[in-house]
Each structure stands twice: as C-alpha cells, then as structure tokens.
Amino acid sequence: MSAAKNTYELTYIVNAVISDDQIKDLVNRVSSYISESGGEIIEIDEWGSRRLAFPIQKKRNGHYVNMYFRASGAVIARLERALEIDDNILRYLTLRMDAKMLRHYEKRKSAIVEARDEEKAEKPKHEASKDSKAEKPKKEEPKKDEAKEDQPKADKPKEDQPKADEAKADESQADEAKADESQADETKAKGGEEPADSTDNPEMEEADDAPAQESAETSEEDAESGSEENEKTAEA
C-alpha cells in the first residue's frame, strides 16, 4: 500500500558565485531526486539572483528557486538531507501546503494563466498597430522628398538677390551718367545762344549807322530847301 502524498512547497537558495550551467545542473539534480523517489513535480519557478537580507557564509547574493511538488513524508526527510550536505545550497525551506495554501496557489496560478492569455491576445493587435504606423510614414515619404527638393528652389532667389542688387546699382549709375551728360549738353547749348556784343558784330553796327545817315541826309535836304526859299523871298 502506497503512502499518501501531500503537496509541498520548497524554496532554496543557491550560491550565486557559481556559473549558470552549474546552477541549472543543481536544479535538475534536485528535481530528478524528487521524481526518482516517487514524487511528482508540479511547478519550478526560478526567481533569479537577489540580494540576501543578511550575509550567509559571507555571501551577499543568492540565486532563489521555488518549486511545488507532491510526495510522501518519507521523501522529504531524504530530500532535506541531500540539500543539507550540498555546499552550493545556502538555505532551504520546505512547507506542507494545507487547504488554504492550496486555494491561494490555485488562484495565483489561474491569475498568471489569464495574464499570459491576455498578453497573447494583445500581441497581434499591437503588432497590427505597429504595422499600420509603419506603413503611414512610407506613404508620406514622397511628400518629404518633394519638400526637400523644393528647398533648393526656394533658396535660389536668396542667392540671386546680391546679383539683382548689383544690376540695379549699375543701372542707377548709368542713369546718373546720362543725366550728367544731358546737363552738360544743356549748359553748352545755353552758352552758344548768348547774344553777341554790338562791338563784335559788324552787321549790327551797319544797321545802327543806317538810320543816322538817313537822318543826316534829310537834315541836309531840309537845309537846302530852306536856303532856296530864302533866296526866293529875297528876290521878291
């Protein structure tokens, strides 16, 4: 007749100084010892390396392993003896789970399973949203490229501004030169139209002398006519 099996929780701390392969071998050795002794492994949960609350054998860190299994009471005594003589196991604690602990374990396990299922269900949605977001920039890439191509075109007028300013300055200088030339021509024209002095123009002198000669001739004729009339009156 086989002995009744109880559910146990075993937590032990492995020396964190050893390598990861050595830690795996130790965990497998403990699990195989329980299975070979007629036990049944339910779950193995490695918590990883953690800082100890107080130094154990001058060690500050340890690798925590938590496991659940079913076995008879006789197996526990032999298991704890094997854990006691292993130098790489710093501490261990074995608890026999009662009904309350079993209910708590079942609730915790179901909550973990539900959380994992939700994560699996959300992964396709999250990946689909990532794909949609990744596709949008691809459609907008040509617009960005066009904007980049238009930038040099927008910068060209800025580069041509100094040339335009130079051309305007040259045109203004040319206009000023033309204005100066026109002013010079006007002054020359005005200087040529000034009236000549009467002393320098012989024609004007002749024109001025002609009335004087005519008046002299008329005065001589009047004098001659007057003398003739006097002679006639004297004869009479």
Secondary-structure blueprint of this entry?
Layout: E1 6-15, H1 20-36, E2 40-56, E3 59-71, H2 73-85, E4 89-96, H3 99-192, H4 202-235
Antiparallel strand pairs: 1-3, 1-4, 2-3
Structural class: alpha+beta
Radius of gyration: 66 Å
How many domains make up the 3D coordinates? 2
Mean pLDDT: 75
- Principal-axes geometry comes out as rod-shaped
Beta-strand content bin: 15-25%
Examine the coordinates and then state which fold CATH places here, giving the name of the CATH topology of the largest domain.
Answer: Alpha-Beta Plaits
| Count of helical regions | 4
Strand order across the biggest sheet?
2-3-1-4
Query: What characterizes the major β-sheet?
Result: 4 strands, antiparallel
CA distance, first residue to last residue: 216 Å
- Element-level helix/strand string: EHEEHEHH
Low-confidence stretches: 193-200
Describe this structure in words.
With 236 residues, the chain is of the alpha+beta class. Helix content is 67%, strand content 20%. The protein has two domains: 6-97, Alpha-Beta Plaits (2-Layer Sandwich), CATH 3.30.70; 99-176. Strands 2-3-1-4 form a four-stranded antiparallel sheet, covered by helices on one side. Residues 193-200 have low confidence and may be disordered.
